[in-house]
C-alpha cells in the first residue's frame, strides 16, 4: 500500500459520522446493508449518508452493489486489512518492542 492511499483512507475515516457509517458496515459483515437500513440505524439524513458513503467508496473502503432497486453497501474487508497491515507492519522496527524485544531479552 502506498502512503498516499493510506492517508486518503485515514482522512476519510477522520469524520465521526463517516467512521460510524464504516463501523456499521464492518459489523454487518460480508453481506453488507441496504442504504436505507444504514440510514435507519444511524438516524442521519439521506443526503448526509450519501455524501459520506461516496467518500468511503472513492477511497476503496466501501463497495456498493445495486440489487434491483436497492443499493447494498459493504465494507471492503481486503482494503481494511491492507490499511491495518500498513499501519502495523513496521511497528517498533527501530525500537525493538513487542515480540522482537521479548526475544532479545530472553
CATH superfamily: Winged helix-like DNA-binding domain superfamily/Winged helix DNA-binding domain
Number of self-contained structural domains: 1
Helices and strands, in N-to-C order?
HHEHHEEHH
In total, how many beta strands? 3
Summarize the main sheet. 3 strands, antiparallel
How much helical structure, as a percent, in the residues?
A: 55-70%
Structural class: alpha+beta
Distance between the termini: 34 Å
User: What proportion of the residues form beta strands (DSSP E)?
Assistant: 5-15%
Low-confidence stretches: none
Based on the coordinates given, report the CATH architecture: Orthogonal Bundle
What is the CATH C-level name?
Mainly Alpha
What is the CATH topology descriptor?
A: Arc Repressor Mutant, subunit A
Amino acid at each position: 500500500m502506498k502512503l498516499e492511499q493510506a492517508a486518503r483512507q485515514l482522512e476519510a475515516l477522520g469524520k465521526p459520522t463517516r467512521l460510524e457509517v464504516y463501523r456499521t458496515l464492518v459489523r454487518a459483515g460480508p453481506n453488507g446493508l441496504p442504504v436505507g437500513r444504514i440510514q435507519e440505524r444511524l438516524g442521519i439524513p439521506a443526503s448526509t449518508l450519501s455524501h459520506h458513503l461516496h467518500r468511503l467508496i472513492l477511497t476503496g473502503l466501501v463497495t456498493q452493489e445495486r440489487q434491483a432497486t436497492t443499493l447494498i453497501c459493504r465494507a471492503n474487508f481486503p482494503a481494511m486489512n491492507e490499511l491495518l497491515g500498513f499501519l502495523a507492519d513496521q511497528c517498533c522496527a527501530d525500537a525493538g518492542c513487542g515480540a522482537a524485544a521479548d526475544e532479545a531479552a530472553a
